[in-house]
Fold this sequence. Notes:
about 5% strand
Amino acid sequence: MCSLSFFFLFLFSTLFFILGIYYLMIDYSLFIEWELFSLNSSMVVMTFIIDWMSLVFMSFVMYISSLVIYYSNDYMHNEKNINRFIMIVLMFILSMAFLIISPNLISILLGWDGLGLVSYCLVIYYQNVKSYNAGMLTALSNRIGDVAILISIPWMLNFGSWNYIYYYYFISDSFEMKIITLLIILAAMTKSAQIPFSSWLPAAMAAPTPVSALVHSSTLVTAGVYLLIRFNPMLMVYDFGWYILFIGCLTMFMSGLGANFEFDLKKIIALSTLSQLGLMMSILSMGYSDLAFFHLLTHALFKALLFMCAGSMIHNLRDSQDIRFMGSIIHFMPLTSICFNVSSLCLCGMPFLAGFYSKDLILEIVCLSWVNFFIFFLYFFSTGLTASYSFRLFYYSMSGDNNYYSSYSFNDSSYFISFGMIGLLIVAVFGGSLLSWLIFPVPYLVVLPWYLKFLTLLTIILGSYFGYVISDFIYSYELFSLNFLSFVMFTGSMWFMPFLSTNYVSYLPLSFGYYSLKSFDSGWGELLGGQGLYSFFVYLINYIQSLYDSNFKVYLLTFVFWMFILFVLFFLYLNSLLCSV
């Protein structure tokens, strides 16, 4: 089933990419309306939008998915129900495709909810307590966004249709559309894990690594950014951009800082995804939706490759994810190391790789835009932190001695894993330049002073040095003060966000439930409800039985008393009959 799914997904990816480039060249958009049924002159219509943006994004999703499924053939070879795993992944891809081509809030909700439900199934795939907790956090955090879209659906009824794309130019003074835009921003923030909903994204690393490669590159987390790209005219009309800019920059800064103090390989890459999502959100808020979409595509290519390389390392190290156990992997796994370092350099924005074309352009646009010093500082400092944790990852995994078991040997022998990585390596190197020529046929000319032009490169170099300094830290109470260790705990735990979004949110409802159970169900409810009545009647029956058993005269007296009452009632009845006659 893996090979068949790989073949069809790759075929559709190629077809959609060619069609997307053709639509881009001729500037063509296609609306398809399919009438499902008609009832009392009311039509239920399914609408799809086929334009260059949806086609290119779908081709990227399917290309990455095809290689991830091929890669899973070896990574999940011990899985007894591999076909079930592939089916769940295909449902995930179908939900994302449904979301991409929908200009209608109803059909968007179907794809959006599909992503949320299937992601829960994938996060709890390895069935243990940690996976279950991560799955619940993921599902409930995303549920907030689902509810926001559900609320926006009845608000859209004020316009007569759920196709928001028809009302771009009739919204300047509409209060209803303002509310809908706010709800869509809330939904996008939950799905793309912006502050304060960021804690679910590293927790979702409990899923198998092929799923992480798919989720963090082109599907689940990018759904919020893609939805805001579609709603971009409304963001600009109502001037909500400043809020998204602030939240996006804070998310970028928080995740970049946290990744420098993390030792779990997958969580470091997950935090780097969070940082890039903050970058996409913030540049989108300035009105550069094409640029945000461009970075979304380039990021999908190198982030999927980064996760595949991480999965290859974890697979060979018998599921060990701690980077402190790694070292000198380049001698054992040269191909994985090459792919890993190329994707890390793409992430940093190294010139002429995929990440450079979008990231450098974004930073130059920020230099050219009217932003304050705080936003400017957060942008460049967060870019430096990206280079910092990438270099730290290189330092721990590639240099020094191997810290795994001395008698253990591993290599790059897997064909399926190597094929998946090479397939993404080619597009990670050449994809950025190709996309930049296609999406921006007339290049952006950003004229800046030389010190601002070189600031991006300088930021990467200084960030790499900072990563080297952090890598040499020895965390011990003898060397550092308690204040510094508290700072490391604060930044390494994402500003305590996982605790705030789990312990403090769930403590009050759970404690209320416990006390209500104790007081009502197990307390007064027992005494006054069914259990209390049962006890009372049992006591009454036993008491009357004891009276009967203790004295036969009491029994006879009771019998005579009841017979007397029956005779009295009988005579009263006869008397009433005679009177009526």
